[in-house]
Specification:
Helix content: 55-70%
Largest sheet: 8 strands, mixed
Distance between the termini: 106 Å
Number of strands: 8
Number of helices: 12
CATH topology of the domain at 31-246: Rossmann fold
CATH architecture of the domain at 31-246: 3-Layer(aba) Sandwich
Length: 354
């Protein structure tokens, strides 16, 4: 980002504080490492250039869109999945290729446009190798803007819908580029396809997105000398949006919204988990309260029964005491002294009477 005003600097500082607090709070929960990494990267991205991630099915023309935007063929194009890596295209004083690993490559070009933003080309959303789709899915949370490229001859395929649902969860700004309009026969068909994309995107994302029908192939050929193709490519409005409408203030706004969108998604996700656990805890608490109630009732019943039985026991003991007293009075009379000499007889007489 460029030099920020004091108000912007204060806003950026406050957002970084909030996001760091959220990071600490989530660290106390059972959070997946992928979620922690997404949040960490979104915070880190606040200090980096504006990040534009280009996504879409293979053969939709993602690489062609980037080539036309940069005015030269920096990426390979083809009818088969040519992009099997994440390509980060950045500004550099010299053209250079830096391999970061099996999945990522950095390309630097001395193109002034790249001094303001980094462009990322990704594998197709419908790539046969599922690892490629995973790479793309994990890279999207870092983006400040998503350019979703779809082909004019097959807009809103099932894989595109599924992928857009994932993007929706991250609350990203999505701009739709409808490529290959040169295969359509009339302006009416172009308008029809654009309307179809806008309506379906509205239903899926909940917002009416910017849509740009273009022919990237015609635009690049126009830049390379065939100027008559420039108007036919309709690339001027899309380029104007990227360079002018998406000015520094707009880029700053999107960059500030990026971590908030990631944070909001993670908070919602883990609040649902907490709510689910609270339901189980409430069930346990209710069961415990029921057990305690039952124990209290059982204790009360036991006390009542015991008190009732104590009266019976006391009555029995009292009767035994009276009979014993009568027994001793009669047994130990002087006239029965000789009977006392027989222990067995005394015992039998006691048991009989008492």
């Amino acid at each position: 980002m460029g030099v920020l005003k004091k108000e912007q600097q204060a806003l950026l500082k406050e957002e970084r504080r909030i996001m760091n607090d959220l990071q600490m709070a989530l660290g106390k929960l059972d959070v997946e490492s992928e979620d922690e990494e997404s949040l960490r990267q979104s915070i880190q991205q606040l200090d980096e250039l504006f990040l534009v991630v280009v996504v879409g099915e293979f053969n939709s023309g993602k690489s062609a869109i980037i080539n036309a935007l940069l005015g030269q063929r920096v990426l390979e194009e083809g009818v088969t999945p040519t992009t099997t890596q994440i390509y980060q295209i950045r500004y550099g004083k010299a053209t250079e290729k830096i391999v970061l690993g099996d999945d990522q490559t950095v390309l630097t070009y001395p193109i002034e446009f790249l001094s303001e933003m980094t462009i990322v080309d990704t594998p197709g959303t419908n790539a046969i190798i599922r690892k490629h789709e995973t790479i793309t899915t994990h890279f999207v949370p870092r983006s400040d803007l998503v350019l979703f490229v779809t082909s004019a001859d097959r807009t809103f395929t099932e894989s595109e819908r599924v992928f857009l649902e994932r993007i929706r969860d991250w609350s990203k700004k999505v701009v739709f580029v409808i490529n290959k309009i040169d295969i359509l026969e009339s302006d009416q068909e172009v308008a029809q396809v654009e309307r179809y994309v806008r309506e379906n995107a509205h239903l899926l994302l909940g917002v009416i997105p910017e849509t740009f029908p273009v022919s990237a192939r015609a635009a690049l050929r126009a830049r390379q000398g065939e100027s008559a193709l420039w108007e036919k490519s309709r690339f001027a409005s899309f380029e104007g949006y990227i360079h002018n409408t998406l000015d520094e203030s707009s880029r700053l706004l999107l960059k500030l919204l990026n971590p908030l969108g990631v944070g909001s998604h993670l908070v919602d996700k883990h609040l649902k988990k907490v709510d689910s656990r609270m339901v189980f805890l409430k069930t346990d608490f209710d069961l415990l309260a029921d057990v305690e109630t039952q124990l209290a009732l059982y204790k009360e019943d036991m006390h009542h029964n015991f008190s009732f039985r104590m009266g019976d026991i006391e009555k029995i003991l009292f009767e035994m005491e009276k009979r014993g007293q009568v027994f001793f009075d009669e047994t130990f009379r002087l006239g029965r002294v000789f009977d006392l000499l027989s222990k067995t007889r005394v015992q039998q007489e006691f048991e009989r009477q008492v």
